[in-house]
Amino acid sequence: MGASSPSISPPARLVVLVSGSGTNLQALLDATADPEYGAVVVAVGADRDGTVGLDRAAKAGLPTFVRRVGDFADRADWDLALAEAISEHRPDLVVCAGFMKILGTGTLARFGGRLINTHPALLPSFPGAHGVRDALAYGAKVTGCTVHLVDHGVDTGPIIAQRAVEIHQDDTEETLHERIKTVERTALVEVVGRMAREGYRIEGRKVLVP
Protein backbone atom coordinates (compact mmCIF):
# COMPACT_ATOMS: atom_id res chain seq x y z
CA MET A 1 0.00 0.00 0.00
CA GLY A 2 1.39 3.39 -0.94
CA ALA A 3 0.98 6.59 1.01
CA SER A 4 -2.49 8.10 1.25
CA SER A 5 -3.93 11.03 3.14
CA PRO A 6 -7.71 10.98 3.66
CA SER A 7 -9.10 14.51 3.40
CA ILE A 8 -10.88 15.80 6.49
CA SER A 9 -12.14 19.32 7.16
CA PRO A 10 -12.97 19.95 10.84
CA PRO A 11 -15.38 19.42 12.33
CA ALA A 12 -15.10 15.84 11.09
CA ARG A 13 -18.38 13.99 10.65
CA LEU A 14 -18.45 10.72 12.63
CA VAL A 15 -20.78 7.79 12.12
CA VAL A 16 -20.48 5.46 15.12
CA LEU A 17 -21.42 1.76 14.95
CA VAL A 18 -22.46 -0.05 18.13
CA SER A 19 -23.69 -3.48 19.19
CA GLY A 20 -24.13 -3.13 22.95
CA SER A 21 -24.02 -0.65 25.80
CA GLY A 22 -22.29 2.12 23.86
CA THR A 23 -19.81 3.27 26.50
CA ASN A 24 -17.28 4.20 23.81
CA LEU A 25 -20.06 6.04 21.98
CA GLN A 26 -20.85 7.97 25.16
CA ALA A 27 -17.20 8.91 25.56
CA LEU A 28 -17.21 10.29 22.02
CA LEU A 29 -20.48 12.15 22.61
CA ASP A 30 -19.02 13.74 25.75
CA ALA A 31 -15.87 14.74 23.87
CA THR A 32 -17.68 16.19 20.87
CA ALA A 33 -19.69 18.48 23.15
CA ASP A 34 -16.54 20.62 23.18
CA PRO A 35 -16.34 22.65 19.93
CA GLU A 36 -12.54 22.49 20.12
CA TYR A 37 -12.58 18.70 19.82
CA GLY A 38 -12.85 18.91 16.05
CA ALA A 39 -15.51 16.29 15.36
CA VAL A 40 -19.25 15.73 15.68
CA VAL A 41 -21.26 12.50 15.76
CA VAL A 42 -23.82 12.73 12.95
CA ALA A 43 -25.45 9.28 13.25
CA VAL A 44 -25.30 5.97 15.11
CA GLY A 45 -25.82 2.57 13.52
CA ALA A 46 -26.31 -0.87 15.05
CA ASP A 47 -26.61 -4.50 14.01
CA ARG A 48 -29.54 -5.18 16.32
CA ASP A 49 -32.49 -3.40 17.90
CA GLY A 50 -32.94 -2.39 21.51
CA THR A 51 -29.35 -1.71 22.49
CA VAL A 52 -28.34 0.75 25.19
CA GLY A 53 -26.08 2.33 22.60
CA LEU A 54 -29.10 3.24 20.47
CA ASP A 55 -30.79 4.65 23.58
CA ARG A 56 -27.75 6.88 24.17
CA ALA A 57 -27.96 8.11 20.58
CA ALA A 58 -31.69 8.83 20.89
CA LYS A 59 -31.13 10.80 24.10
CA ALA A 60 -28.52 12.85 22.25
CA GLY A 61 -31.05 13.58 19.49
CA LEU A 62 -29.05 11.72 16.84
CA PRO A 63 -30.44 9.83 13.86
CA THR A 64 -30.02 6.07 14.13
CA PHE A 65 -30.24 3.09 11.81
CA VAL A 66 -30.29 -0.68 12.33
CA ARG A 67 -29.18 -3.27 9.80
CA ARG A 68 -29.63 -6.81 11.11
CA VAL A 69 -27.78 -9.63 9.40
CA GLY A 70 -30.83 -11.90 9.61
CA ASP A 71 -32.90 -9.51 7.51
CA PHE A 72 -30.75 -10.13 4.42
CA ALA A 73 -30.14 -13.09 2.11
CA ASP A 74 -26.44 -13.24 2.96
CA ARG A 75 -23.63 -11.31 4.63
CA ALA A 76 -22.66 -9.58 1.40
CA ASP A 77 -26.16 -8.11 1.01
CA TRP A 78 -26.12 -7.03 4.67
CA ASP A 79 -22.74 -5.40 4.26
CA LEU A 80 -23.85 -3.44 1.19
CA ALA A 81 -26.99 -2.29 3.02
CA LEU A 82 -24.89 -1.19 5.97
CA ALA A 83 -22.56 0.73 3.66
CA GLU A 84 -25.55 2.47 2.05
CA ALA A 85 -26.93 3.45 5.46
CA ILE A 86 -23.57 4.84 6.57
CA SER A 87 -23.13 6.73 3.29
CA GLU A 88 -26.38 8.62 3.78
CA HIS A 89 -24.71 10.58 6.59
CA ARG A 90 -21.58 11.51 4.59
CA PRO A 91 -19.02 10.60 7.29
CA ASP A 92 -15.38 11.57 7.30
CA LEU A 93 -14.64 8.77 9.78
CA VAL A 94 -16.58 5.65 10.76
CA VAL A 95 -15.93 4.43 14.31
CA CYS A 96 -16.69 0.85 15.31
CA ALA A 97 -17.39 1.36 19.02
CA GLY A 98 -18.00 -2.16 20.27
CA PHE A 99 -19.50 -3.19 16.92
CA MET A 100 -19.38 -6.99 16.94
CA LYS A 101 -19.69 -7.74 13.25
CA ILE A 102 -16.91 -8.16 10.70
CA LEU A 103 -17.23 -5.61 7.92
CA GLY A 104 -17.06 -6.83 4.34
CA THR A 105 -15.98 -5.76 0.90
CA GLY A 106 -18.86 -3.34 0.32
CA THR A 107 -18.15 -1.27 3.42
CA LEU A 108 -14.37 -1.42 3.00
CA ALA A 109 -14.62 -0.33 -0.64
CA ARG A 110 -16.38 2.87 0.40
CA PHE A 111 -14.70 3.63 3.70
CA GLY A 112 -11.34 1.87 3.64
CA GLY A 113 -8.73 3.99 5.43
CA ARG A 114 -11.48 5.77 7.36
CA LEU A 115 -12.83 2.88 9.47
CA ILE A 116 -11.56 2.91 13.06
CA ASN A 117 -11.87 0.02 15.51
CA THR A 118 -10.65 -0.82 19.00
CA HIS A 119 -9.43 -4.15 20.34
CA PRO A 120 -8.81 -5.15 23.99
CA ALA A 121 -5.25 -6.43 23.50
CA LEU A 122 -1.93 -5.26 22.14
CA LEU A 123 -2.19 -6.43 18.54
CA PRO A 124 -0.91 -8.46 16.83
CA SER A 125 -1.11 -10.49 20.05
CA PHE A 126 -4.48 -12.02 20.96
CA PRO A 127 -6.73 -11.00 18.04
CA GLY A 128 -10.33 -12.14 17.77
CA ALA A 129 -13.34 -12.09 20.04
CA HIS A 130 -11.59 -13.30 23.22
CA GLY A 131 -8.52 -11.08 23.47
CA VAL A 132 -8.82 -10.56 27.23
CA ARG A 133 -9.44 -14.22 28.01
CA ASP A 134 -6.62 -15.31 25.73
CA ALA A 135 -4.10 -12.94 27.34
CA LEU A 136 -4.97 -14.30 30.79
CA ALA A 137 -4.79 -17.91 29.64
CA TYR A 138 -1.39 -17.31 28.05
CA GLY A 139 -0.02 -15.94 31.29
CA ALA A 140 0.84 -12.53 29.86
CA LYS A 141 1.96 -9.91 32.37
CA VAL A 142 0.98 -6.91 30.24
CA THR A 143 -1.88 -6.46 27.79
CA GLY A 144 -3.81 -3.36 26.79
CA CYS A 145 -5.83 -1.92 23.94
CA THR A 146 -5.24 -1.09 20.30
CA VAL A 147 -6.91 1.52 18.10
CA HIS A 148 -6.53 0.47 14.48
CA LEU A 149 -7.88 0.87 10.98
CA VAL A 150 -10.16 -1.89 9.71
CA ASP A 151 -9.06 -4.03 6.78
CA HIS A 152 -10.25 -7.34 5.31
CA GLY A 153 -8.80 -9.42 8.15
CA VAL A 154 -9.81 -9.90 11.78
CA ASP A 155 -7.96 -7.27 13.85
CA THR A 156 -5.20 -7.10 11.23
CA GLY A 157 -5.50 -3.47 10.10
CA PRO A 158 -2.77 -0.85 10.50
CA ILE A 159 -2.27 0.22 14.11
CA ILE A 160 -2.95 3.86 15.01
CA ALA A 161 -2.26 3.78 18.77
CA GLN A 162 -1.79 1.38 21.67
CA ARG A 163 -2.00 1.68 25.46
CA ALA A 164 -0.59 -0.87 27.92
CA VAL A 165 -2.46 -2.31 30.91
CA GLU A 166 -0.72 -4.41 33.56
CA ILE A 167 -2.27 -7.76 34.39
CA HIS A 168 -2.66 -8.32 38.12
CA GLN A 169 -2.11 -11.74 39.68
CA ASP A 170 -5.69 -11.92 40.93
CA ASP A 171 -7.32 -10.60 37.76
CA THR A 172 -10.37 -12.30 36.31
CA GLU A 173 -11.50 -11.77 32.75
CA GLU A 174 -14.10 -9.32 34.03
CA THR A 175 -11.81 -7.19 36.22
CA LEU A 176 -9.11 -7.01 33.56
CA HIS A 177 -11.58 -6.16 30.82
CA GLU A 178 -13.03 -3.31 32.89
CA ARG A 179 -9.58 -1.75 33.33
CA ILE A 180 -8.83 -2.17 29.64
CA LYS A 181 -12.13 -0.57 28.65
CA THR A 182 -11.37 2.50 30.77
CA VAL A 183 -8.03 2.95 28.99
CA GLU A 184 -9.62 2.12 25.63
CA ARG A 185 -12.23 4.88 25.91
CA THR A 186 -9.56 7.47 26.62
CA ALA A 187 -7.35 6.26 23.78
CA LEU A 188 -10.22 6.23 21.27
CA VAL A 189 -11.28 9.77 22.15
CA GLU A 190 -7.71 11.04 21.91
CA VAL A 191 -7.02 9.33 18.58
CA VAL A 192 -10.26 10.33 16.87
CA GLY A 193 -9.84 13.93 18.03
CA ARG A 194 -6.29 14.16 16.71
CA MET A 195 -7.21 12.57 13.38
CA ALA A 196 -10.15 14.96 13.03
CA ARG A 197 -8.23 18.10 13.95
CA GLU A 198 -4.86 17.42 12.36
CA GLY A 199 -5.46 14.77 9.71
CA TYR A 200 -3.41 11.63 9.20
CA ARG A 201 -1.42 9.76 6.59
CA ILE A 202 -1.27 6.06 5.80
CA GLU A 203 2.08 4.68 4.66
CA GLY A 204 1.93 0.93 4.26
CA ARG A 205 1.14 -0.38 7.73
CA LYS A 206 1.95 2.91 9.42
CA VAL A 207 -0.76 5.41 10.33
CA LEU A 208 0.94 8.75 10.92
CA VAL A 209 -0.98 11.27 13.02
CA PRO A 210 0.70 14.63 13.73
Distance between the termini: 20 Å
* Most strands sheet: 7 strands, mixed
What portion of residues belong to β-strands? 15-25%
- Tell me the number of helical segments per DSSP (H or I, 4 or more residues long): 6
Pfam families: Formyl_trans_N
GO biological process, one term: 'de novo' IMP biosynthetic process
Keywords: Purine biosynthesis, Transferase
Family: Belongs to the GART family.
Characterise the protein shown here:
Its EC number is 2.1.2.2. Belongs to the GART family. By secondary structure, the chain is an alpha/beta fold. The chain has a domain of 101 residues: Formyl transferase, N-terminal domain (Rossmann fold, 3-Layer(aba) Sandwich). Helices cover 34% and strands 24% of the residues. The protein is built from six helices and ten strands. The mean pLDDT is 96.
Describe, in short, the structure shown:
By secondary structure, the protein is α/β, with parallel strands linked by helices.
